[in-house]
């Protein structure tokens, strides 16, 4: 059995289309079919169901694919580890981070780091904390800059800073000229929220609960910029971190006097998982920076 056969099986299992898989692998369709047939013979059980030109994984194929995925992942991580050791000043760091960090913290961090390590590249992704945690566990990202949302082993999270939260209102709102505001004062206002499951929404709901407030939610969005846009359109008010770098011409940020409103932001990684020298350097850089 050849290593290449595992790659062929994995690709065909993902695409479940012989022609497309052959094109992706840069081999002929007959060659792929012959390789898969030999592979099944050596495994001792058929892994696909074939009906005319269609092909799909059977129950044995689904079971075996999980093992092959793990094996391939270990192989490529081991290969990457050896390559990184040859030149620790190069490499790639993959980072997932919250949307609200994209206009200030992330650009500043990357710019500062690249001054010290100009040959290290980055692969970036944005999303809510619960999605980023899943992507960390799956190995899609080396590191995550997220809120502390139900962090469980093997995820490790270290706090970096506290982010102040503000009441956001339209420029022509009756509260727009206030220097400070309390949560009680906005208790009856229509509220624009992030969707359920987002860490910022959970934080705000906890603040409302402590203050005995039940928000009257009128709209929900998936990003802070979307929420700010709905507020600017006069569809309600919201609570968000400082929207530095985004258009604030139609909204006003009001500091919250009572209670203190903030959320923690930290760096996360998977305990025990290999981090390349480049990722290790960036992780330590971030920890030292804050």
List keywords for this structure.
290 residues, 8-stranded mixed beta sheet, single chain, alpha/beta, 12 strands
What can you tell me about this protein's structure?
This protein has helices at 3-15, 18-25, 29-43, 59-86, 105-116, 129-138, 199-211, 224-232, 277-289, and strands at 48-51, 54-57, 92-97, 121-126, 143-146, 155-170, 181-182, 190-194, 216-221, 238-241, 251-258, 262-270. With 290 residues, the protein is α/β, with parallel strands linked by helices. Strands 3, 4, 5, 6, 7, 10, 11 and 12 form an 8-stranded mixed sheet that branches. Strands 1-2 form a two-stranded antiparallel sheet. Strand 1 and strand 2 form a beta hairpin. It is elongated and about 75 Å long. The relative contact order is 0.14.
Task: Write a short abstract of this structure.
By secondary structure, this protein is an alpha/beta fold. The protein has helices at residues 3-15, 18-25, 29-43, 59-86, 105-116, 129-138, 199-211, 224-232, 277-289; strands at residues 48-51, 54-57, 92-97, 121-126, 143-146, 155-170, 181-182, 190-194, 216-221, 238-241, 251-258, 262-270. The longest helix has 28 residues, at 59-86.
